Amino acid sequence: MVTTINGVTKSVIKSLDNSLDDSYTKAALAELRSSINRDSNYASKTWQLLFDKLPKDYLNTDGYLTREEKVILSTLQLYATHQQGNVQTVNYDQDEYIDTVGHFDVQYANKDFFVEFKVIKADGTSETSKRSFKNYEDVVNFMGKWNNEIPNKMQKTKKYSSNLGNSLNLYRSSLGDKKAFDNRFNTMLTASTYDELLNNLRHIIKIIKAGKTPIKINYPKLAQDLYSWLGSEQSRDRIKLQWSQSYYYVDLKKENSNED
Protein backbone atom coordinates (compact mmCIF):
# COMPACT_ATOMS: atom_id res chain seq x y z
CA MET A 1 0.00 0.00 0.00
CA VAL A 2 1.15 3.55 -0.80
CA THR A 3 2.23 5.30 2.41
CA THR A 4 2.96 8.93 1.46
CA ILE A 5 0.57 11.90 1.39
CA ASN A 6 1.46 12.50 -2.25
CA GLY A 7 1.09 8.84 -3.18
CA VAL A 8 -2.23 8.25 -1.40
CA THR A 9 -3.77 11.40 -2.90
CA LYS A 10 -2.51 10.44 -6.35
CA SER A 11 -4.00 6.97 -5.99
CA VAL A 12 -7.44 8.28 -4.97
CA ILE A 13 -7.58 10.89 -7.72
CA LYS A 14 -6.40 8.40 -10.33
CA SER A 15 -9.26 6.06 -9.40
CA LEU A 16 -11.68 8.96 -9.95
CA ASP A 17 -10.03 10.15 -13.17
CA ASN A 18 -10.32 6.67 -14.66
CA SER A 19 -14.11 6.80 -14.42
CA LEU A 20 -15.16 10.44 -14.73
CA ASP A 21 -18.23 9.49 -16.78
CA ASP A 22 -19.35 6.87 -14.27
CA SER A 23 -22.44 7.70 -12.20
CA TYR A 24 -20.71 6.58 -9.00
CA THR A 25 -17.76 8.93 -9.64
CA LYS A 26 -20.08 11.85 -10.39
CA ALA A 27 -21.97 11.16 -7.16
CA ALA A 28 -18.71 10.88 -5.20
CA LEU A 29 -17.44 14.21 -6.56
CA ALA A 30 -20.79 15.85 -5.77
CA GLU A 31 -20.60 14.51 -2.20
CA LEU A 32 -17.07 15.85 -1.83
CA ARG A 33 -18.22 19.31 -2.89
CA SER A 34 -21.22 19.22 -0.56
CA SER A 35 -19.03 18.05 2.34
CA ILE A 36 -17.08 21.34 2.38
CA ASN A 37 -17.42 23.17 5.72
CA ARG A 38 -19.48 20.33 7.20
CA ASP A 39 -16.95 19.20 9.80
CA SER A 40 -17.18 15.39 9.98
CA ASN A 41 -20.76 15.00 8.73
CA TYR A 42 -19.82 13.34 5.44
CA ALA A 43 -21.78 10.98 3.23
CA SER A 44 -20.85 7.34 2.70
CA LYS A 45 -18.96 7.77 -0.59
CA THR A 46 -16.73 10.44 0.98
CA TRP A 47 -15.83 8.10 3.82
CA GLN A 48 -15.15 5.30 1.37
CA LEU A 49 -12.84 7.47 -0.74
CA LEU A 50 -11.04 8.74 2.32
CA PHE A 51 -10.45 5.45 4.11
CA ASP A 52 -10.13 2.83 1.36
CA LYS A 53 -6.59 3.80 0.38
CA LEU A 54 -5.29 5.26 3.65
CA PRO A 55 -2.57 3.28 5.48
CA LYS A 56 -3.31 2.39 9.09
CA ASP A 57 -0.82 4.97 10.37
CA TYR A 58 -3.01 7.73 8.90
CA LEU A 59 -6.22 6.57 10.57
CA ASN A 60 -7.71 7.64 13.87
CA THR A 61 -10.33 5.97 16.05
CA ASP A 62 -11.26 8.78 18.44
CA GLY A 63 -13.74 10.57 16.15
CA TYR A 64 -11.31 13.25 14.99
CA LEU A 65 -9.50 13.50 11.66
CA THR A 66 -5.75 13.05 11.76
CA ARG A 67 -3.50 15.61 10.08
CA GLU A 68 -3.08 13.19 7.18
CA GLU A 69 -6.82 12.56 6.83
CA LYS A 70 -7.54 16.27 6.99
CA VAL A 71 -5.16 17.35 4.21
CA ILE A 72 -6.12 14.50 1.87
CA LEU A 73 -9.82 15.23 2.37
CA SER A 74 -9.24 18.96 1.85
CA THR A 75 -7.32 18.27 -1.35
CA LEU A 76 -10.04 15.97 -2.69
CA GLN A 77 -12.64 18.67 -1.99
CA LEU A 78 -10.58 21.23 -3.90
CA TYR A 79 -10.10 18.76 -6.75
CA ALA A 80 -13.85 18.06 -6.85
CA THR A 81 -14.58 21.80 -7.00
CA HIS A 82 -12.12 22.24 -9.85
CA GLN A 83 -13.32 19.11 -11.68
CA GLN A 84 -16.98 20.18 -11.76
CA GLY A 85 -18.08 20.84 -15.35
CA ASN A 86 -14.86 19.43 -16.86
CA VAL A 87 -14.85 16.30 -18.98
CA GLN A 88 -11.05 15.97 -18.79
CA THR A 89 -9.16 15.68 -15.53
CA VAL A 90 -7.97 18.90 -13.91
CA ASN A 91 -5.22 17.03 -12.07
CA TYR A 92 -1.70 17.33 -13.41
CA ASP A 93 -0.66 13.72 -12.96
CA GLN A 94 2.73 13.81 -14.65
CA ASP A 95 6.08 14.55 -13.07
CA GLU A 96 6.52 18.10 -14.31
CA TYR A 97 9.77 19.78 -13.32
CA ILE A 98 11.13 23.27 -13.35
CA ASP A 99 14.80 23.11 -14.38
CA THR A 100 17.28 25.45 -12.77
CA VAL A 101 21.04 25.77 -12.84
CA GLY A 102 22.05 26.31 -9.26
CA HIS A 103 19.99 26.96 -6.16
CA PHE A 104 18.31 30.01 -4.61
CA ASP A 105 17.84 30.55 -0.90
CA VAL A 106 15.67 33.57 -0.08
CA GLN A 107 15.34 34.95 3.43
CA TYR A 108 13.35 37.94 4.69
CA ALA A 109 14.63 39.96 7.65
CA ASN A 110 14.49 43.58 8.77
CA LYS A 111 12.30 44.49 5.78
CA ASP A 112 14.93 43.26 3.31
CA PHE A 113 15.12 40.15 1.09
CA PHE A 114 18.47 38.36 1.15
CA VAL A 115 19.21 36.03 -1.76
CA GLU A 116 22.00 33.48 -1.69
CA PHE A 117 22.57 31.55 -4.90
CA LYS A 118 24.99 28.85 -5.99
CA VAL A 119 26.15 28.53 -9.58
CA ILE A 120 27.75 25.44 -11.10
CA LYS A 121 30.24 26.77 -13.63
CA ALA A 122 31.22 25.18 -16.95
CA ASP A 123 34.36 23.63 -15.45
CA GLY A 124 32.30 21.86 -12.78
CA THR A 125 33.29 24.13 -9.90
CA SER A 126 30.73 26.14 -7.96
CA GLU A 127 30.56 29.57 -6.40
CA THR A 128 28.12 31.17 -4.00
CA SER A 129 27.04 34.79 -4.16
CA LYS A 130 24.70 36.96 -2.12
CA ARG A 131 22.41 39.88 -2.95
CA SER A 132 19.90 41.92 -0.99
CA PHE A 133 16.71 43.60 -2.23
CA LYS A 134 14.10 45.95 -0.79
CA ASN A 135 11.02 44.45 -2.44
CA TYR A 136 9.93 41.05 -3.68
CA GLU A 137 9.40 42.17 -7.29
CA ASP A 138 13.12 42.96 -7.53
CA VAL A 139 13.91 39.47 -6.21
CA VAL A 140 11.71 37.90 -8.87
CA ASN A 141 13.22 40.03 -11.63
CA PHE A 142 16.72 39.14 -10.50
CA MET A 143 15.94 35.42 -10.44
CA GLY A 144 14.46 35.59 -13.92
CA LYS A 145 17.38 37.52 -15.40
CA TRP A 146 19.90 35.29 -13.66
CA ASN A 147 18.31 32.14 -15.10
CA ASN A 148 18.14 33.77 -18.54
CA GLU A 149 21.85 34.61 -18.59
CA ILE A 150 23.12 31.14 -17.62
CA PRO A 151 25.13 29.56 -20.47
CA ASN A 152 23.34 26.56 -22.00
CA LYS A 153 26.41 24.37 -21.57
CA MET A 154 26.17 24.51 -17.78
CA GLN A 155 24.89 21.33 -16.21
CA LYS A 156 21.49 21.31 -14.55
CA THR A 157 21.95 20.64 -10.85
CA LYS A 158 18.47 20.61 -9.40
CA LYS A 159 14.86 20.03 -10.36
CA TYR A 160 11.79 21.17 -8.45
CA SER A 161 8.37 19.50 -8.66
CA SER A 162 5.55 21.59 -10.07
CA ASN A 163 3.53 23.19 -7.26
CA LEU A 164 0.44 25.37 -6.87
CA GLY A 165 2.42 28.50 -7.73
CA ASN A 166 3.47 27.04 -11.10
CA SER A 167 -0.14 26.38 -12.09
CA LEU A 168 -1.33 29.81 -10.99
CA ASN A 169 1.63 31.36 -12.83
CA LEU A 170 0.22 29.90 -16.06
CA TYR A 171 -3.12 31.57 -15.40
CA ARG A 172 -1.43 34.84 -14.41
CA SER A 173 0.56 34.91 -17.66
CA SER A 174 -2.72 34.83 -19.62
CA LEU A 175 -3.96 38.02 -17.94
CA GLY A 176 -3.49 41.56 -19.19
CA ASP A 177 -4.11 43.28 -15.87
CA LYS A 178 -2.64 41.01 -13.19
CA LYS A 179 -3.27 43.23 -10.14
CA ALA A 180 -6.60 41.74 -9.01
CA PHE A 181 -5.38 38.16 -9.23
CA ASP A 182 -2.08 39.07 -7.56
CA ASN A 183 -4.08 40.56 -4.69
CA ARG A 184 -6.12 37.37 -4.41
CA PHE A 185 -2.95 35.25 -4.38
CA ASN A 186 -1.31 37.45 -1.74
CA THR A 187 -4.46 37.31 0.39
CA MET A 188 -4.24 33.53 0.32
CA LEU A 189 -0.63 33.67 1.52
CA THR A 190 -1.59 35.79 4.54
CA ALA A 191 -4.17 33.29 5.77
CA SER A 192 -3.70 32.76 9.49
CA THR A 193 -5.74 29.55 9.79
CA TYR A 194 -6.06 26.39 7.73
CA ASP A 195 -9.78 27.01 7.11
CA GLU A 196 -9.01 30.53 5.89
CA LEU A 197 -6.35 29.15 3.54
CA LEU A 198 -8.80 26.58 2.10
CA ASN A 199 -11.48 29.21 1.64
CA ASN A 200 -9.05 31.38 -0.36
CA LEU A 201 -7.91 28.37 -2.39
CA ARG A 202 -11.52 27.60 -3.33
CA HIS A 203 -12.02 31.19 -4.50
CA ILE A 204 -8.86 30.99 -6.61
CA ILE A 205 -9.92 27.68 -8.16
CA LYS A 206 -13.30 29.14 -9.11
CA ILE A 207 -11.52 32.07 -10.76
CA ILE A 208 -9.24 29.90 -12.89
CA LYS A 209 -12.19 27.62 -13.78
CA ALA A 210 -13.95 30.64 -15.29
CA GLY A 211 -10.90 31.61 -17.36
CA LYS A 212 -10.34 30.85 -21.03
CA THR A 213 -7.06 29.02 -20.45
CA PRO A 214 -7.45 25.45 -19.07
CA ILE A 215 -5.32 25.17 -15.94
CA LYS A 216 -4.39 21.92 -14.22
CA ILE A 217 -3.07 21.62 -10.69
CA ASN A 218 -0.76 18.96 -9.28
CA TYR A 219 -3.18 17.96 -6.51
CA PRO A 220 -0.98 15.24 -4.94
CA LYS A 221 1.78 17.86 -4.56
CA LEU A 222 -0.78 20.30 -3.15
CA ALA A 223 -1.75 17.71 -0.52
CA GLN A 224 1.90 17.32 0.42
CA ASP A 225 2.28 21.11 0.70
CA LEU A 226 -0.88 21.43 2.80
CA TYR A 227 0.50 18.79 5.14
CA SER A 228 3.65 20.90 5.54
CA TRP A 229 1.50 24.03 6.00
CA LEU A 230 -0.14 22.37 9.00
CA GLY A 231 3.27 21.60 10.47
CA SER A 232 5.70 24.05 12.04
CA GLU A 233 5.74 27.78 11.38
CA GLN A 234 9.05 27.30 9.57
CA SER A 235 7.60 24.69 7.20
CA ARG A 236 4.55 26.91 6.60
CA ASP A 237 6.78 29.85 5.66
CA ARG A 238 8.80 27.59 3.35
CA ILE A 239 5.66 26.51 1.46
CA LYS A 240 4.51 30.13 1.13
CA LEU A 241 7.89 31.12 -0.26
CA GLN A 242 7.95 28.20 -2.72
CA TRP A 243 4.48 29.09 -3.99
CA SER A 244 5.49 32.75 -4.32
CA GLN A 245 8.72 31.98 -6.15
CA SER A 246 6.84 29.82 -8.65
CA TYR A 247 3.90 32.22 -8.99
CA TYR A 248 5.97 35.34 -9.68
CA TYR A 249 8.63 33.61 -11.75
CA VAL A 250 9.05 35.26 -15.15
CA ASP A 251 10.37 33.15 -18.05
CA LEU A 252 12.33 35.89 -19.79
CA LYS A 253 13.36 33.57 -22.64
CA LYS A 254 9.71 32.90 -23.45
CA GLU A 255 8.77 36.57 -23.13
CA ASN A 256 11.59 37.62 -25.45
CA SER A 257 10.59 35.04 -28.06
CA ASN A 258 7.00 36.30 -27.93
CA GLU A 259 8.20 39.83 -28.60
CA ASP A 260 10.24 38.84 -31.67
Q: What's the short story on this structure?
A:
The chain is α+β, with helices and mostly antiparallel strands and 260 residues long. It has 11 helices and 5 strands.
Structure explained in plain terms:
The chain has 260 residues and is an alpha+beta fold. The protein contains eleven helices and five strands. The strands form two sheets. The protein has a three-stranded antiparallel sheet with strand order 2-3-4. A two-stranded antiparallel sheet has the order 1-5. Strand 3 and strand 4 form a beta hairpin. Helix 7 packs antiparallel against helix 8. About 9% of the residues have low confidence.
The oligomeric state is single chain
The number of distinct β-strands equals 5
Order of strands across the biggest sheet? 2-3-4
DSSP helix fraction: 40-55%
* CA radius of gyration: 20 Å
Number of helices: 11
Mean pLDDT across all amino acids? 79
- Which sheet architecture does the biggest sheet show? 3 strands, antiparallel
The run of helices and strands is HHHHEEEEHEHHHHHH
What fraction of residues sit in β-strands? 5-15%
Bulk shape: globular
Distance between the termini: 51 Å
Poorly predicted regions: 96-102, 151-160, 251-257
How does the helix and strand content classify structurally? alpha+beta
